[in-house]
Every structure is written in C-alpha cells, then in structure tokens.
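Possible regression after last week's pipeline update?

I re-ran a chain I had predicted before the update to compare outputs. Posting the input and the new output here so someone can diff against the archived version. Not blocking, just want to make sure nothing changed silently.
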Amino acid sequence: MVPMTLTFLGTGTSMGVPVAGGFGRETPSTDPRDQRWRTSAWVRTAHTSVVIDAGPEFRLQTLRAGIRRIDALLITHEHTDHVGGLDDLRPFNYTQRAPIPVLCHPRTEAHIRRRFDYMFEPDKTPGSVDMAFMPVGPTRIGDLEIRPVPVIHGNLDILGFRINDLGYVTDASELDDEAIGLLAGCDTLVLNGLRWEPEHPTHFTIPQAVEVARSIGARRTWLVHMSTPVRHADTDRRLPEGIRLAYDQLTVSVGGPSASP
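New output (post-update):
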C-alpha cells in the first residue's frame, strides 16, 4: 500500500460556515472546528500531489496547507463552491511551467469553458490558467490510481473519486449500486452530511450519510459539507464508532496508524 495523506482544505457548505450576514439567526461558535471553508481536499504521497475541487477560498486554502505543487485537479462538479477559485491555479502554472491535468464530468468541462472563457481563447492573456482536461475514466497520476465514481446530486450527475484506498464523495443525495461497488473495500471514506434534519433534496443528511457509510463498510468515515447548525463536539458524541466529522486542516493517513477517527 502506498502511504497516502489526506488533508481537508475545507469542510463547509456552499456558503461556508458561518454564512455571510448570518441569515439573522446564526449563533457564533467558539470551537474553531465549526469555522468551515468550502469543501475541498488535498491528497498526496511522497511523490504525487492531487487536489479535489477549487472553491472560492482556494488561494487561502493552498497557503494555509502549504501546497507547493498540483499534479492534477479533480473536480466533482461545476457549482461555484467547487470551481470558483480556478483562477488561483495561475501561480502553479507559473512554477510548474506546464498545463495542470484536470479530471471532471464532460458537462463540467463545458461549463468551465463557458464561465472562464478567457482561459481558453486562442489569444488569451499571457499568464492565464492553463488546464489540460483528461478523458473521464480510470487514470493514473504518479503513484495514485484514480477512478471516477458516479454520484447523484439532486437532478445532477456528478463525480466522486476512488483514489487508491480512499473513497471521496461530496454533495451526494444518492449513490447507486455501481457507486457502492466502486467504493467498497476502501480504507477511508469521505462523505457529505449536511445536517441532522430535515431531509434535503440534493444532499445527504447526517443519518443518511451514516447509513450509506455502513453499506460501504470503510474502516473509518469522515463527514464533510456540514452546515452551521452542525456543531462539531455535539455531533461527534452522537455519531457511531468509526464515523466522525472532519474539520478544516485535519490531516489523516489513509491506512496508516493515525487514521482512526
């Protein structure tokens, strides 16, 4: 097994936690684990560095985590909290002097090409982001074997990923048998859990995430994409053994001795 490290760059919902303006009803938490940037992750080995999603805080996330190289970017889908920071790939293009390989759904690629059209114009501004979209399918980046996993996000088909012994799924409202099969046997599972209740049309609630995690049977599961009412300490006390909330900047070894939640 290739030693692999997972860092949670962000664990919050599309508006972050706490929400700007507070919706007039948010009560601030003093627990730093309840301050959540938009959900994103960094997966690395001794030789390979891969990032999943690039939301609005992407620049800050890379600085806080100390990311110096991106060998590939995996994008789950085109919502702003997952692609809003793509322009901040520029310094990585500068230093790496090469396009950054990107794996995403074809619809997501089309959206990115429309929304960030200046990145793809023949006479684009020098220094613009340079991305190289890869065919959707199993691929190898360095010593990481990556398999896209079909995920249902409301009425949208998006991607999760199986990366060696890591299963990564966010923004899911349903996983079909194919997805469960691709994730089965993973050591570590990342799964979205928006809130305790009520049910949501496009995201798992925490009880739903727990049920899905049990069906996959990973050794341990970390929940992400939590909303403001989900308080870290209280929620962890309610979760079953082997399932815990992740938090921003949490770093775990996949399959290693520090992996237990």
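Follow-up from reviewer: compared with the archived run. DSSP finds seven helices and 14 strands in the chain. Marking as no regression found.
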